[in-house]
Amino acid sequence: DAKTTQPPSMDCAEGRAANLPCNHSTISGNEYVYWYRQIHSQGPQYIIHGLKNNETNEMASLIITEDRKSSTLILPHATLRDTAVYYCIVRGAGSYQLTFGKGTKLSVIP
Amino acid sequence: SAVISQKPSRDICQRGTSLTIQCQVDSQVTMMFWYRQQPGQSLTLIATANQGSEATYESGFVIDKFPISRPNLTFSTLTVSNMSPEDSSIYLCSARPGGQNIQYFGAGTRLSVL
After folding, report:
1. B96 touches chain A (CB under 8 A)
2. Pairing status of strand B10-13 against strand B109-113
3. Is B46 on the interface with A (CB under 8 A)?
4. How far is CA A25 from CA A3, A22, A60, A95, in A?
5. Does residue B97 contact residue B31 with C-beta atoms inside 8 Å?
6. How far apart are CA B65 and CA B18, in angstroms?
7. Which of A7, A33, B22, B83 is most buried, by CB atoms within 10 Å?
8. Cis previous bond, A8, omega within 30
């Protein structure tokens, strides 16, 4: 599975959009991009995943560049409850494993 | 989706003892996974547990230290054997429902070994 690179930390003002970048320049054609988050002292929570097209659900939007070498997770209106570590993970279609990197620690500031 | 319950949520144990962590899923799942999260670190996969077969362990993890059972499609246990302070971590159970490309996680078991 391809490796990912994320900034170690980011701040976002409450009510503003949080845009979390992820670089996965070695991604191959059948690998998906997944986003999870881990709020302090809890298990990871699935947010969204995609292959090529942009995806949106009730939690977030996932924007994948045309060359698929990077993506951005967008939380449209960040709240204090969105403070967490966000993990960008690339997983092959035939793989069942999730390999967690260090993630981005997002702090939502009042 | 799948709801995953782990027991115990936390424990404090003496070195040399063993602890068995239980993981219950609210639906039948083919694949279950056990992860370890050491203090301040990210998650590391310990093993994959499929019902009806031996668990598959990742490099650095062995069955004698982390025996796993998977008696049915909704339940699994992980035992941390002959514990030392280095085993102090959060242990997380995860499951992937059939037909879905999503893994769901339990809340974890916070283990402290004295």
Report:
1. yes
2. parallel
3. no
4. 8, 9, 22, 19
5. no
6. 9
7. A33
8. no
Q: Cα–Cα distance between B73 and A102 in angstroms, integer?
A: 31
Structure tokens at B80: 């941390």
Q: Are A10 and A20 in contact (CB under 8 A)?
A: yes
The Cα-based distances of A34 to A53, A77, B51 in angstroms read 13, 20, 26
By the 8 A CB rule, do B33 and B94 touch? yes
Residue A100 CA to residue A81 CA, distance in Å, equals 22
Q: How far, in Å, CA of A19 to CA of A35, rounded?
A: 13
3 state SS for A65-96: CCCCCEEEEEECCCCHHHCEEEEEEEEECCCC
| SS3 (DSSP) at A80 | helix
**Alpha-carbon distance B17 to nearest alpha carbon in chain A (angstroms):** 25
Q: Tell me if B47 sits within 8 A of B111, measured CB to CB.
A: no
Tens digit of pLDDT at every position of chain B (114 positions) = 889 999 999 999 999 999 999 999 999 998 899 999 999 999 999 999 988 888 999 999 999 999 999 999 999 999 999 999 999 999 999 999 887 889 999 999 999 999
Is residue B109 within 8 angstroms of chain A, CB to CB? Answer: no
